[in-house]
Structure of YdbS-like PH domain-containing protein:
Amino acid sequence: MIELHKNEDILAVRRKTWFVFAATWAAALLLLLGPLFGAAILAAPKLEILRGALITPYVFLSGFFEWTVWLWLFAGMINYYYDVFIITNERIVHIEQKGMFNRTVAELNLSRLQDVTIEQRGLVETLLHFGTIRAQTAGELNVFTFEQVDRPEVVKEIIARAQRIALKGNRPWP
């Protein structure tokens, strides 16, 4: 994943909440069932005359459609799995997968961390306990954002504890 510095320990590794990928999975499942409904329509007795002419293009197009949906689901799984938020005793690393072959890696030194906020908007985020974490460093305008993280209040506490230790300079981590 990342190369650790000397005496650096990983405290937490977080991904987006399962709910994000579950929505993609449910949409893919509905799309994969689509060709079955088309086959049921093709099997209607009134279309018997056209069935012979339509069956070959239908099989080809539905197979291509199914293949495309599986690729879309695979790309969604890659994006979900490789979006990672790593907290060490020295820094925060955010690896964001933006496509199959596009990744952004950003890191923030805990000793420069100035503000960490969490945001939970709406009923779904509140009930399922996920939200957005924003961290800002001293002297920089960039805000470090990790969206849809599971249990953001726990992650904020881990970051706050790691920052206190990083500022003191001692290592209580095992």
About this structure: Helices lie at 18-42, 48-82, 122-127, 152-168.
